[in-house]
Amino acid sequence: MVSVSEPEGPAAAGPVVGVDIGGTKTSAGLVDPSGGLLAVRTRPTPATRGAAEVVRTAAELVRELAELAVPGGAGAVTAVGVASAGVIDSGRGVVVSATGAIAGWAGTDLRGELSRELGLPVAVDNDVHAHLLGEQWRGAAAGRRDVLLVAAGTGIGASLLLGGRVRHGARSVAGHAGHLPVAAAAGRPCPCGGRGHVEAVAAGPALLAEYRRRTGAGVTHLAEVALLAEAGDSVAAIVLAEGASALGSAIGGLVNVIDPEIVVIGGGVAGCGAPWWDALREAVRAEVLPALCDIPVEPAVLGGDAALLGAARLVLEVET
C-alpha cells in the first residue's frame, strides 16, 4: 500500500498516476502537476479473468510507478486518475455499463475498489472524456474552453468541453456520437442494435468491411486500405472518402448545436490520410452554418498519452 493522507477534492500537487484501462492493454503514467509525463508502464489487460483482476493489474502498475518516483514508494504519489472504456458515472466512480470486452466490467465500483487496494484517492471517467482533457491540457486544443473531440476507431465516440468542463449528461451517456443518424447509413445495422447510425458506415470495421465487399480483397486491417488509397487504389479512396463524409456531416450538425472553438479528431481512423481528411473537412464545411464556416477541424496530437494525461488531470488542480 502507498501510504498517503487523502486530500479533500483534487490533489493540489503531484506527482499523480493516470491509468488508461482498455480491453487489450492497461497503461499507467507518472504525471507531474505541470503535465509532464515522467514514465509509462503497460501490461496486457486480463480481460477474460474479470474485473477484480483488471483492478489488481492497474494497482500493480501504480505501485511500480510509485516505486520509480521515490525508491521505497511511500509518499510520492498523491492520487490516481483512471480512464476506462464504458459508460462511467464519474461522480461515483462506477462503471454503469460496458461491452463484453472486459468480463464483468459493468457494475464495477472502480473508484472504491482501486482506492481500497492502494490507500489513495481515486477519480474515474470515461476514456474518451479523458482523451479530451489530455488534448485540452497539452495537445491540439490547449487553452481552449469549448471543445468537441471525436474519436473515430473501432467505434465512434465524442466528448464535449463547455466552459472548461466536460459534460457527462444526466445519465453519464453524453458523447455517443456514433449513434447519430446520417443519410449515408440509412438502413445499415449499427453495433448498438439500431439502424442508420454513422458508426455503421464510418467506424474502422465498417470501412474495412465495405472495401472488402466492393473488391473481394482479403485485406484484414484498415491501415491496408489507407495504404492502397495512397498508392492510387480508387475504390479504397472512395470508401474512405464516403465514410469520412458521413462522419463530417454528423460532426457539422454537432458543431451547429454546440458552437465549439475547435473540433479535434482522434482515433485510428484519423490516420487514414489525405482522402479521409479532405472529405471529412469538406463535409463539415458543407453542414455548418455560415457563421461557423471557419471552425478548425484538427487531428489530435498526443496519441496514447492523451488518456493518461487526461486521467491524471482528474486529480490535479489545473486551471482551465
UniProtKB/TrEMBL annotation:
InterPro entries: ATPase_NBD, ROK. It holds the Pfam family ROK. It comes from the Bacteria. Belongs to the ROK (NagC/XylR) family. This is Transcriptional regulator. It comes from Planobispora longispora.
